[in-house]
Structures are given as structure tokens and as C-alpha cells.
UniProtKB/TrEMBL annotation:
Name of encoding gene: trpS
Main location: cytoplasm
Record EC number: 6.1.1.2
UniProt record similarity statement: Belongs to the class-I aminoacyl-tRNA synthetase family.
Membrane-spanning parts: none
Name of protein: Tryptophan--tRNA ligase
GO biological process, one term: tryptophanyl-tRNA aminoacylation
UniProt-annotated location(s): Cytoplasm
Swiss-Prot/TrEMBL catalytic activity: tRNA(Trp) + L-tryptophan + ATP = L-tryptophyl-tRNA(Trp) + AMP + diphosphate + H(+)
Signal peptide: none
Keywords attached to this entry: Aminoacyl-tRNA synthetase, ATP-binding, Cytoplasm, Ligase, Nucleotide-binding, Protein biosynthesis
Organism of this sequence: Beutenbergia cavernae (strain ATCC BAA-8 / DSM 12333 / CCUG 43141 / JCM 11478 / NBRC 16432 / NCIMB 13614 / HKI 0122)
Assembly notes: Homodimer.
Length: 332
């Protein structure tokens, strides 16, 4: 079976609806057809200088959300990035294959470093996409399910795979992005031209998976729409309404065209009420399942320890081949 790998950063107490629709639901579906490996990328989270105790807590919470959403440890490898030392080791080798200008062109780096200023911008933020390439190539990954915002980083992973293979002989497959167009970019409810984001989102524009249902309903009710009344999917002219239709359709399974018909002549208020119901209905069992996992931290840690062991076995093989190919002397 082809291999799928993906990860998310433990940079918030809760994942948001963009993470869930753009990535996590795809991860769960791909378990049926792929050899799946999913990771909480805590080393990446160090780029935002988190409080140590908070980072530890969020790492567990993120893993609990993967499990609650349906990542099944019996079928997938689920682990924490820092538990497998080979990620950082392969990242060094790949960093030595990455051009400075190539890394400096990454738009996420440009955006985040512009916000943080020269003093606040670390080398870790700069080399973030190189570590991401290491995560992916270490498992000889074929498919990487991500949202649209990660497309450029994935392109770099592909370039590095090709470069390594052409310089040192075939070592890793060139990974493909798995980006599902309809849900590739969920927008901020309060600013529907920006993506829903853990770090940049306006407080009112983001729906966290673990939010209280009342908060979710309130945020959807106050979602920014346009001054018209027609419920129509038109991301250019009606980004707010189109975002609500996307969310409804993805969670309810109802095609967007059918929703347009259903809400014809009924105005935005009705749409918002129904979207709130659909979101609360989808997230309530998920929130309860997360609470279940967090109530048994030993069981959660056991799942992660077993996952790390399985991941390490694969990672060790790839890193050994790469070290050998680039000419590092075996330890004997
Ligand atoms: N708004 C979104 N719509 C669809 N998919 C999205 N993803 C993120 N936002 C949306 C996808 O979720 C995964 C999260 O990866 P990450 O933890 O590395 O975070 P990120 O891509 O930087 O996005 P976040 O979670 O919103 O954080 P910040 O605030 O740092 O931008 C990825 O697959 C991503 O594509």
C-alpha cells in the first residue's frame, strides 16, 4: 500500500475547523487505503517559543484530538516527532542540500518573519520547511494530505527528494500533495478572505474543535457576510456566505448546489442557524471523545510510545541509507 504521512503543530489548546476539514478528516479517510503515519510535530512548535509546560500539555491534547477524530492506532502509526531523533538528524542533511535563497522564498517564512521582526525571527523559523521535508522523506512517504497553505512547503520537500536522489542515487519516493479542493482553505469567519489560523485568527473568526457549543453558535451567527440576501456559492463576490456553505457541505455531506436550492429566498439568518447546528452536531461527539482520552493520560502515553517505536524502526532504516549514501562513516 502507498504510504501517507502528515503532522500538525501543538501550538493551540484546540485544533480549528480548518485543520479538521483541510487535514484531519482526510487523514482518517486515507487510513482505509494507505499505510498511514501521523505525527504531532512538537519540534516545529518550538519556532513559536512556547511555554514548556503548555507545550507538553498541548502535545497530549493534539494527539487526543487525532484519536477522537478517528485516527486509529491499530491501523496507523501515531507518535510525537521529538520521540524519534532521526527527524532532526535528516533535517541537517537536507539543510545542506537546500539553497539559502530557496528557503528565503518560502511565503510562510516571509509572512511570519515580517510579523515577528528581525529580532524575533529565529533560524528555526527559517529552516522549518527543511524539518518538514525530513518528516516526510524519513518515512519514504508517497502522499501528504495537507491544506492549501502547505503547498509551497510540500513543493520544497519534492525538490529535496529529487535532488537527493539525483545526487546520491534512489533513496526516497518523491511525495505527492493530497489537497482536497473543496476544503483546502477554510476561511476566518470574521475576515473571510484570510484563512482560519491558529496564530493569526481574530478571536471571533475561528471555530475550535473543543469550543463550547454556545460559543460556536455565537461565532457562526456573527460571521461576516455581504450586504445582499441571496445564498449563493461565489467565493469572489460572497466569500463569507461561500465559506459557510463549504463548512455545511463538508460536515453534512449535502452538495453545495442542494444547499443553495434549500436556502433560496430565505436569507443568511437561516443559513447561519443551520450551519451552527451542523457544526455543533459534528463536534460534540469529538469533544467528548477528547475528554475521554485526556482522562486517561497513561493510556494516551502508551499509544504514543508504541507509535514512536514503530516510527523509529522505519526512520532508522531510511536515515542509515541516507548517511551511507552521503558518505558518513558508519559508527562500526
Ligand atoms: N484554514 C485552513 N483550511 C484548510 N486547511 C488548513 N490547515 C491549516 N489551516 C487551514 C491545515 O491544517 C494542518 C495544520 O498544520 P500546522 O499545525 O502545521 O499549522 P499551519 O498549516 O501553520 O496552520 P494553522 O493550524 O492555522 O497554524 P498557523 O496559525 O501557524 O498558520 C495543515 O495540513 C494545514 O495545511
Amino acid at each position: 500500500r502507498p504510504r501517507v504521512f502528515s503532522g500538525m503543530q501543538p501550538t493551540a489548546d484546540s485544533l480549528h475547523l480548518g485543520n479538521y476539514l483541510g487535514a484531519l478528516t482526510q487523514w482518517v479517510a486515507l487510513q482505509d487505503t494507505h499505510d498511514a503515519i501521523y505525527c504531532v510535530v512538537d519540534l516545529h512548535a518550538l519556532t513559536v517559543a512556547p511555554d514548556p509546560a503548555v507545550l507538553r500539555e498541548r502535545t497530549r491534547r493534539t494527539a487526543a484530538q487525532y484519536l477522537a477524530a478517528g485516527v486509529d492506532p491499530a491501523r496507523s502509526v501515531l507518535f510525537v516527532q521529538s520521540h524519534v531523533a532521526e527527524h532532526a538528524e535528516l533535517a541537517w542533511v537536507l539543510g545542506c542540500l537546500t539553497g539559502y535563497g530557496e528557503a528565503a522564498r518560502m511565503t510562510q517564512f516571509k509572512d511570519k518573519s515580517a510579523k515577528q521582526g528581525a529580532e524575533g525571527t529565529t533560524v528555526g523559523l527559517f529552516t522549518y520547511p527543511v524539518l518538514m521535508a525530513a518528516d516526510i522523506l524519513l518515512y519514504r512517504t508517497n502522499v501528504v494530505p495537507v491544506g492549501e497553505d502547505q503547498r509551497q512547503h510540500l513543493e520544497l520537500s519534492r525538490d529535496l527528494a529529487q535532488r537527493m536522489n539525483s545526487r546520491y542515487g534512489p533513496l526516497v519516493p518523491v511525495p505527492e500533495a493530497h489537497i482536497v479542493r473543496e476544503v483546502a482553505k477554510i476561511y476566518d469567519l470574521a475576515d473571510p478572505t484570510s484563512k482560519m489560523s491558529k496564530s493569526n485568527g481574530s478571536v471571533n473568526g475561528i471555530i475550535e474543535l473543543l469550543d463550547d457549543p454556545k460559543v460556536i453558535a455565537k461565532r457562526i451567527r456573527s460571521a461576516v457576510t455581504d450586504t445582499g440576501t441571496e445564498v449563493r456559492f461565489d467565493p469572489e463576490a460572497k466569500p463569507g456566505v461561500s465559506n459557510l456553505l463549504t463548512i455545511h457541505s463538508a460536515l453534512s455531506g449535502t452538495p453545495v448546489a442542494e444547499l443553495e436550492d434549500r436556502f433560496a429566498g430565505r436569507g443568511y439568518g437561516h443559513l447561519k442557524v443551520e450551519v451552527a447546528d451542523v457544526v455543533v452536531e459534528a463536534l460534540t461527539p469529538l469533544r467528548e471523545a477528547v475528554e475521554g482520552w485526556l482522562a486517561q493520560p497513561e493510556k494516551l502515553d502508551d499509544v504514543l510510545a508504541e507509535g514512536a517505536e514503530r516510527a523509529r524502526a522505519i526512520a532508522r532504516g531510511t536515515l542509515g541509507d541516507v548517511y551511507d549514501a552521503v558518505g558518513l562513516l558508519p559508527a562500526g
